[in-house]
Amino acid sequence: MRFVLASQSPARLGMLRDAGIEPVVRVSGVDEEAIEASLPDAKPDTVVVALAEAKARAVLADVVAEHPDALIVGCDSMLHFDGQLMGKPATVDIARERWGRMAGNTGDLMTGHAVLRVDGGEVTATATGTESTVVRFGKPTERELEAYLASGEPLRVAGAFTLDGRGGWFVDGIDGDSSGVIGISLPLMRRLLNEVGLSVVDFWSAPTE
Ligand SMILES: Nc1nc2c(ncn2[C@H]2C[C@H](O)[C@@H](COP(=O)(O)OP(=O)(O)OP(=O)(O)O)O2)c(=O)[nH]1
User: Fold this and answer.
1) How far apart are CA 8 and CA 38, in angstroms?
2) Residues in the active site (predicted)?
3) I need a labelling partner for 105 at 20 to 30 A (CA). Which of 63, 76, 79, 135 fits?
4) Is the pTM of the predicted complex or chain greater than 0.90?
5) In this structure, what CATH number is given to the domain that contains residue 24?
6) pLDDT tens for residues 93-116?
7) Are 20 and 82 in contact (CB under 8 A)?
8) Does residue 209 lie within any of the structural domains?
9) What is the pLDDT of residue 209?
10) Ligand 1 atom with least separation from CA of 109
């Protein structure tokens, strides 16, 4: 059975590889804004799970053609802050405005997860869940913020910050699971695989020296 990651995210791929899984990668290309727009009154965890499941289902036919037995994983991360659910900032100005509000405050980085178990070309089980981690933002100086914005990193990531990249200098702390902030929650994924009758260790590659 192959482990399929329905994501272009280098963070998710790196996290899985470091945790012993070499996934098949299939980029879903899902129109996230359209899905969000179709859920105007949904709660934040409903939105991120819906996006995660849409990504997993978007690659299903393609995967089954090649791997009739597969575990397909979709994820979606957004920052819930100040009553807003925010993905990646579209522009530097938007990232700057958000950081002006985030600095010195806390937000919840929420990552929705969906797993589809496929046996003999048919979906035999599904499981979903959301990991929410409290993020306490530091107070970058104006010079620091401008340098961070100029790095380009904030535009590539949900919430305009990273924990494990250049953004780490500006995160004072978290309450919860760090892997969920980076892009895929390992403890939640372990539980979701158990829900569909599998275990992460079924997919572990041979230990490297
Ligand atoms: N390395 C790192 N990446 C982060 C962090 N926080 C968020 N990200 C990245 C992970 C994802 O690539 C991205 C969240 O956006 P999405 O959930 O829409 O995924 P993305 O569009 O990248 O790929 P996908 O839609 O799954 O094909 O932000 C962090 O703390 N560290």
Assistant:
1) 23
2) 76 (proton acceptor)
3) 76
4) yes
5) 3.90.950.10
6) 999 999 999 999 999 999 999 999
7) no
8) no
9) 67
10) 6
Residue from 76, 108, 172, 202 carrying the catalytic annotation: 76
* Distances, alpha carbon 160 to alpha carbons 12, 34, 190, in Å: 17, 21, 27
Domain count, the chain: 1
The reply to whether 93 belongs to the active site is no
Whether residue 84 lies inside any domain: the answer is: yes
Q: How far apart are CA 169 and CA 146, in angstroms?
A: 14
182 lines ligand 1 (CB under 6 A): yes
Across the strands, what pairs with 73? 5, 115
**Could you tell me the residue range of the domain that residue 193 belongs to?**
2-203
* Ligand 1 center–CA 120 separation, angstroms: 31
Query: Residue 189 and residue 94: Cα distance in Å, rounded?
Result: 32
The answer to the question of residue 90 being in a domain is yes
Q: What is the pLDDT of residues 55-85, one digit of tens each?
A: 999 999 999 999 999 999 999 999 999 999 9
104: left (phi over 0), alpha (psi -120 to 50) or beta: left
Give the ipTM. 0.97
